[in-house]
Amino acid sequence: MGPKLPDGLARWVLEHLPYPFIGSTIVPLGVDLGECHDRHRNQVDAGSLLQELPPPSDDLLKMALVGADLFYSVMTYVFGLTELGGRRGVLSCYRLRDELGTRPEILLQRTLVETVHELGHSLGLVHCVVGECPMHRTLWAEGIDTKKETYCPSCLATLVKNGH
Ligand SMILES: [Zn+2]
Ligand SMILES: [Zn+2]
Fold it and tell me: Please, which residues have CB less than 5 A from ligand 2, an ion?
């Protein structure tokens, strides 16, 4: 069902998750990607995937990282999709490679930043105006390169205020 996740990508991202995230494990997806695959678009429906994703147990967040290209509703593609405050989301690394696909470190960093972005949504954070904040909205992969993986002070304050 589309490209596979590069070896070691999920592990690397988990090991580099910034504050306030602590501890993490990799578990099997638990969803048959084929059931969410649109044959005509040759993409995976992010909405169905998110719906099928088994919810995490209490106090955990779950982020499904996939190699397949995702679309959602009328959008041609999405990097990820997360229920606001819903503690679970999906993210694809499909469009996060550098243009030539020759710099794996770019894929790692972009996937990390966008994972932190989706995790932020899963904790109730909305998009942020601060350009270097991971919660800043980016539509193009190149735009991710100006963001950091650590939340800006304002987003961190919101997390604290919300009890995280
Ligand atoms: Zn977003
Ligand atoms: Zn922010």
Answer: 128, 130, 133, 135, 152, 155
